[in-house]
Amino acid sequence: MALHDSTNAAAPSNHVFYAPPTCLLCSHTSIDPPPAANLFDPKRESDSAPSIEPAFLQLESRYPISFFATAMRTPIGILQTANRLPVSPTPTAPSPPPRSFLLRALSLTALGLVLTSSAFLIAASPALPSLLSLASPPSPTDTLALYTPPDPLSAAINDHITTHPLAQSLRRNPAFTESRPHIRIPAAMRAHNLTGGTLHGPGRIVVPPLAFVEDGGRSIVCFFYLGADLCGHPGVVHGGLLATILDEGMARCCFPALPSQVGMTANLTLNYRKPCPSERYVVLRAWTRDVEGRKAWVEGRVESLEVEGEATVFVEAEALFIEPRQAATMARLYPAATA
């Protein structure tokens, strides 16, 4: 590119002329050259350094952007040609025919049934283990293996009860069935049971009571250990607790003698003989005195559990139990009551 032509007249020293640029793709020189640009701005404070900014701005305003794209080997023409190509419309599938009203109604009904069933299963899932336990409770004999003492004290107490001479003699008698009745209650329901849950644990009824029930509901013998947290007066077991275990034990005694094997307390009379010390082994004895239809009269007592010597009687009781009219339903809901 020539900056000065010697054949032309002399130009002022502050002007520079440019030759027409040559196209980089086809060596075409038909593009008109830009006008001369003043490289020195007389308005600047110092003219010591030349500037090409005015000339570049004039060049940019004179030539389109395609000129610079061609110089940089950018295929603008290809892009512009692609933009001008016709675009074929996207084929659309034909819309399906509308479903009949009956089909839509059946679909909505099926969806409603699925959602309702799912909601019911989610709501009933916490109670599912309890329902399964009610449907298939463990047998009286199975309850003996379902209890494991949680600590050394409980293990020692349990060992003393199960190996006591009285327990061994009853175990050898085929007329008695050995069990731990409260273990038959489902775990979720057992936590809300008074003697099987609330009063069970360290310092209270330490191990689940061990019961021997005679066939036909004729009698029962039940072993307890009463801890220090069951007192009324210091060191003396609360009389209300003795009444509670008598009420439950006497009812369990007569249930097999009733038609539906379940009943409710109609009358309970107690006679306290001596204070019952806490942290003591006791045994409950009860026997069915008479049965008339849906009524059963039972007598019982709580006494000390001695290895040798005569036992001390703490409280005696008499009770009347009546089978309710809805007894068949209660027998299904409380299978432990029929143990």
Can you walk through the features of this model?
It is elongated and about 105 Å long. It has a seven-stranded antiparallel β-sheet with strand order 3-4-5-7-8-9-6, sandwiched between helices. The chain has a two-stranded antiparallel sheet with strand order 1-2. The chain has helices at 53-62, 65-71, 76-84, 101-124, 128-135, 152-162, 165-172, 187-190, 194-198, 239-254, 327-333; strands at residues 15-16, 37-38, 176-179, 210-214, 219-226, 264-272, 280-292, 295-304, 313-322. The chain is an alpha+beta fold and 339 residues long. The protein is built from eleven helices and nine strands.
Characteristic terms for this protein:
339 residues; alpha+beta; seven-stranded antiparallel beta sheet; disordered N terminus
Give, in order, the helices and strands.
Answer: EEHHHHHHHEHHEEHEEEEH
- By helix and strand content, what is the structural category? alpha+beta
Outline type: elongated
Question: How far apart lie the N and C ends?
Answer: 117 Å
Question: Are there runs of 5+ residues with pLDDT below 50, and where?
Answer: 1-19, 23-31, 36-42, 44-49
Q: How many strand segments?
A: 9
Q: Could you tell me the radius of gyration in angstroms?
A: 52 Å
- Average per-residue pLDDT, rounded, comes to 77
* Helix content bin: 25-40%
- Arrangement of strands in the largest sheet: 3-4-5-7-8-9-6
- Beta-strand content estimate: 15-25%
Number of helices: 11
Q: What's the story with the biggest beta sheet?
A: 7 strands, antiparallel
